[in-house]
Write a structure and sequence with these properties.
102 residues, mainly alpha, 5 helices, globular
Length: 102
């Protein structure tokens, strides 16, 4: 069951971004399940389904990847992108956190 069923439709998620300009595409955010939560900060977003809250978006962020990174069990994400996509993102996160940086 969706945590925020009001935003279950894409047009309403897109409309939530109507008054802001973000560094990441609001269209991509909306398609990935996110809507703007205006009372939580300038670019605070939430997934309508799982409720994960993400902010501090950068221009290079892929909303689907960030969604899979921080909420790999979201049914909306899994239905749209599949378990293999989520597993690959999780593997990449695990690998990058185990990489030594000089």
């Amino acid at each position: 069951m969706s945590k925020f069923p009001l935003y279950a439709t894409l047009p309403l998620r897109i409309a939530s971004f109507s008054s802001v300009v973000l560094r990441v595409s609001t269209q991509l955010l909306s398609v990935a399940g996110f809507f703007l939560v205006s009372n939580e900060g300038e670019d605070a977003t939430r997934c309508f389904h799982c409720g994960i809250g993400l902010r501090n978006w950068s221009q290079d962020d892929d909303p689907w990847v960030e969604h899979a990174r921080f909420s790999p069990n979201c049914d909306f994400l899994l239905n749209m992108k599949g378990q293999e996509f989520v597993d690959l993102v999780q593997l990449a996160v695990k690998y990058s956190s185990n990489t030594c940086r000089h």
